[in-house]
């Protein structure tokens, strides 16, 4: 995706984590001028050198006016939002008050993946939501081996079981992540998020609640009904480190429908931890044939 | 179920928790002579006044020989098994060594619900596995209101969502328990068990990770493919207390396919906590029409 004119402002609605910064820098490298609205987990993040500021949920209207006044026509929403906004706790500004019914309906909608909802809200405001992979196609996970070594037989079986469970979860519009051994599902992600689910697995392991012969795999899968513009599953260095601490030996993500954040660092961490990282085709098997043209693998 | 002759010995393979003792006392009240093989979590439990003893996984063969020598023809397996046996850590006795391949195959089978597997193993040994509700039909949850008050509208919506997710989980042969609000699924049980899942919800709540308007429901559902002789979902007083601590306002269980352990105490705890406890028909709605003839409700 290229700017429509040199220095086209690109709105970035940034939650927490590393992804928003990677997207902002890629946008700048492609000739955009990023305009960054920080929300939720991004409150304390350092965004020196980028136009924008932090907006609480109560200042949604102000954030939209700021983007419009900055000349923004297209926006990307990404990053983590770990707390749900509590609209009853908001002291609404005048601008927010005008927009509250619409915002309220959005946030009460479904699961905690508010960024997608926020993006739809922006669309109604005349701002076009774009996907992070439109800005940086290299973020998409390839099919087949992404990083680390090849998986062994029991790792492949654990990946297949975790993938099946993750797709079933996704169909319910619940979590994206599952840990399984070759024998059984160990942990399912819901509101707690992937990090806390991995901490739980580490804890079960420390308390000898897992069999010694159980080989663990983590799968993060896109929902079958996933809108690929928003909230794709992602893995980064912290995923590798936390998975390693939980005893996970193989990680699978949906090929072409998930993000690898900071590929070189992920590859190094996977190599150091001795973890196999794979892009899984929808049938759950690594599939070289489904490797997308633009992929993280191309940067390896 | 009546004894075939006065004082017929009834084998009881007892894991942890209150259920095995309730079953043993009911069996005795019906004229059986309970012979209790304690396993797993029951290691430290007090079973004074009952014939039997504790058997480690490595002494499976000894346990079976003990039951047979006691004249046992029918066995009931129930109670909690929170740790998987590690066959590589077993120093096998001679009797176990002879049976190890079969036992090993059982335990490596699927999820952590080992009691069902152990029961199948016994069947191969010529011992007939029976269900706890054969011994004590009052344990089965009725349809409709079981205890506490009637649910409100948002509680009914949370119950319906949790029930849908729990049935989907069951189809995957994973956990039986789900916590949902009227808006989204909050927590899914896998290897950690219901108690730890409820602790997680309490923790999410304490950290303001749930919205103030979210009304929480817990559902424990039988799997669609459930073998009703083994491992039915159950609730007891500790379920009510832990659910209350997690902020859960309504609890649903599969009517006729789940157990209410110690009904009077559950009813008192639900009343004290102000929690609605319901038996759910397979379509997810409380259904008076599907109320089973023999039910916990009849003891109310």
From TrEMBL, chains A, B:
InterPro entries: LpxI (IPR053174), LpxI_C (IPR010415), LpxI_C_sf (IPR043167), LpxI_N (IPR041255)
Native source species: Jiella sonneratiae
Domain LpxI C-terminal: 142-277
Gene: lpxI
Protein name: UDP-2,3-diacylglucosamine diphosphatase LpxI
Keywords: Hydrolase
Pfam families noted in UniProt: LpxI_C, LpxI_N
A molecular-function term among this protein's GO annotations: hydrolase activity
Keyword Lipid biosynthesis found: no
């Amino acid at each position: 995706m290229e700017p429509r004119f040199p220095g086209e402002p690109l709105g970035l609605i940034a939650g927490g984590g590393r992804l928003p910064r990677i997207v902002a820098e890629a946008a700048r490298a492609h000739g955009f001028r990023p305009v960054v609205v920080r929300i939720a987990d991004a409150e304390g993040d350092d965004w020196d050198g980028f136009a924008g500021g932090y907006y609480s949920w109560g200042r949604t209207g102000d954030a939209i006016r700021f983007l419009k006044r900055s000349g923004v026509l297209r926006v990307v929403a990404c990053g983590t939002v770990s707390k749900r906004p509590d609209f009853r706790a908001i002291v609404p500004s005048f601008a927010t008050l005008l927009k509250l019914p619409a915002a309220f309906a959005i946030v009460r909608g479904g699961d905690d993946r508010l960024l997608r909802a926020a993006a739809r809200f922006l669309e109604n405001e005349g701002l076009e939501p774009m996907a992070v992979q439109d800005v940086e196609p290299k973020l998409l996970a390839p099919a087949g081996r992404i990083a680390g070594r090849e998986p062994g037989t029991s790792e492949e079986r654990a990946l297949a079981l975790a993938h099946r469970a993750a797709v079933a979860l996704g169909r319910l519009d619940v979590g994206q992540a599952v840990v399984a051994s070759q024998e059984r599902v160990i942990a399912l992600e819901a509101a707690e998020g992937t990090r806390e689910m991995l901490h739980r697995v580490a804890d079960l392991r420390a308390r000898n609640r897992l069999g010694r012969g159980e080989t663990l795999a983590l799968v993060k899968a896109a929902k079958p009904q996933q809108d690929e513009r928003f909230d794709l599953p992602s893995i980064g260095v912290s995923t590798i480190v936390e998975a390693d601490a939980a005893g996970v030996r193989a990680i699978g993500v949906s090929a072409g429908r998930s993000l690898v954040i900071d590929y070189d660092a992920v590859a190094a961490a996977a190599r150091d931890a001795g973890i196999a990282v794979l892009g899984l085709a929808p049938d759950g098997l690594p599939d070289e044939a489904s490797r997308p043209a633009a992929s993280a693998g191309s940067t390896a």
